[in-house]
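To whoever is on call:

I kicked off a structure prediction for a single chain this morning and the downstream step that reads the tokens threw a length-mismatch warning. I double-checked the sequence; it's 136 residues and nothing unusual in it as far as I can see. Pasting both halves so you can look.
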Amino acid sequence: MSDIEGRGFGHRGTATAVVNESYSFACMRCGHGWEQSYEIEHYTDGDGHECVRYVADGRLVPSPLSRPNCQNCDGHVVRIMRAGRVSSAQSHLHRHEDHRHEPPPGEEAADRAQEVHGDHHWHLSDLLHPFHRKAG
């Protein structure tokens, strides 16, 4: 079976089967995480070979399993995980952020805003922390 993205074969209405799959991705270079759903169209080409096309957001795209690129830094070292891993990690991080202590009441509003909403560079370890296995 081959992936024919970008080759311009036929029109999209000729699929014999369509499967929906979703994946989570994490860039090992910059730590960016995202999720994407795909329609995987199976069909037989003019020579009788089985082929697939990946469609995301209505556009033909390369197979996410071949060589994904980071949407943030265009890096090529990307971890592919089952769907829901990134959103689960992000919700864990947001809950952690919500439990931060409030600054003392005497501080300026700008200082409080910087402390609560300050620039934070997310690292890959921040994103994947909820999934680390405990030893033993």
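Update from on-call: the warning came from a stale cache, not from the record. Cleared it. Sanity check on the structure: The chain has one domain: 2-131.
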